[in-house]
Amino acid sequence: MHELSITQNLLALALQHAEPAGVRQITTLHLVIGELSSVVDDSVQFYWDFVSKGTIAEGARLHFERIPAAFRCLDCQTEFGRNDRYQCPACGSGHVTISAGEEFFLKSIEVEE
Ligand SMILES: [Zn+2]
After folding, report:
1. How far, in Å, from the CA of 87 to the mean position of ligand 1?
2. Residue among 105, 106, 88 at smallest CA distance from 97
3. Ligand 1: distance of its center to the CA of 107 in Å?
């Protein structure tokens, strides 16, 4: 159930930015979530409604921006998208690393002052 602690951290972060600014209501959180991230957006949404209750972020909408997976070949540095074999399409090497798709972070918040 790591989505619960993730969601609590998100709330803490959003409040940390909004409260000193005298914000009345946080209306939207923009989250970036990578295709390979283990975070399940439905679970975050579920916990969000629970943890945000009674705060200035209660009822805020969660907007998820998805980042597709990308890989880089360590042998020839070619960047490529997801394929079935996790192999470099240029040189056939299996020596690849993930260059995008594991992200999960709070990008911005929208508020009413
Ligand atoms: Zn390669």
Report:
1. 8
2. 88
3. 32
What's the 83 CA to ligand 1 centre distance in angstroms? 13
Rounded to whole angstroms, how far apart are CA atoms 27 and 25?
6
The pTM of this model reads: 0.84
Asked if the model's pLDDT at residue 1 lies above 70, the reply is no
Cβ-based neighbours of 9, under 8 Å, separated by 6 or more: none
> pLDDT tens-digit profile of 78-87?
999 988 788 9
Q: How far is the CA of 84 from the centre of ligand 1 (A)?
A: 15
Q: How far apart are CA 14 and CA 106, in angstroms?
A: 8
Cα 67 to averaged position of ligand 1 atoms, centre (Å): 22
CA 101 / ligand 1 centre spacing (Å): 19
For the chain, percent of residues with pLDDT exceeding 70 = 99
State how far the alpha carbon of 7 is from the alpha carbons of 12, 37, 49, in Å. 9, 15, 10
Q: Which domains does the chain carry?
A: 2-112 (3.30.2320.80)
